[in-house]
Design a protein that fits this description.
By secondary structure, this protein is an all-alpha fold. The chain has one domain: NusB-like (N-utilizing Substance Protein B Homolog, Chain A), CATH 1.10.940. Helix 1 crosses helix 5 and helix 3 packs across helix 5. The chain is globular. The protein starts with a helix and ends in a 19-residue tail after the last helix. Keywords: RNA-binding, Transcription, Transcription antitermination, Transcription regulation.
Length: about 160
């Protein structure tokens, strides 16, 4: 198993554990870093933190493109593999989209149902297809989030770049 495949699997373990405990996506990350057995690689940390940071956008995108399958109906392993895959497709610039898709499909083949690899392949391929629009929507959603402490958001000074 390639190194990054192991790191993705470890990220899946952490995301799965957090979800099963009813915590935020990165809810068990601090515990895993403290125990550090097995050690948590920085790539794993980046995946978990990235999924957590973009959780609402990732889940909305999955809901939009998973025809007739709500996130709640998906097996938890598939749901979290999809979250990792979407994060890598949209925000991990050093991971080519086909690699992100292939890695998620292979982990699904190893860890999930017989139907999961095909489902994950189709859904992540659709996300890769709509990547430019998805990134624009994610940027817009981030710009519209309330800013803490009453500070001005990116549009406050009227100098936001649209591009």
């Amino acid at each position: 198993m390639a190194a990054r495949t192991k790191y993705r699997k470890r990220a899946l373990d952490i995301l799965f554990e957090s979800e099963s405990r009813g915590l935020a996506a990165d809810g068990t990350l601090a515990d895993r870093l403290e125990v550090n057995d097995p050690p948590v690689n920085p790539y794993t940390v980046g995946l978990v933190e990235g999924v957590a940071a973009h959780a609402a956008q990732i889940d909305a995108l999955l809901e939009e493109h998973s025809h007739a399958w709500s996130l709640d109906r998906m097996p938890a392993v598939d749901r979290n593999l999809l979250r990792i895959g979407v994060y890598e497709i949209l925000w991990a610039e050093d991971v080519p989209d086909p690699v992100a898709i292939s890695e998620a499909v292979e982990l699904a083949r190893e860890l999930s149902t017989d139907e999961s690899p095909k489902f994950i392949n189709g859904l992540l391929s659709k996300v890769a297809e709509v990547k430019p629009q998805a990134l624009r929507a994610a940027e817009q959603a981030s710009a519209e989030e309330p800013v803490a402490d009453g500070a001005a958001g990116p549009d406050a000074a009227g100098d936001r770049e649209d591009g």
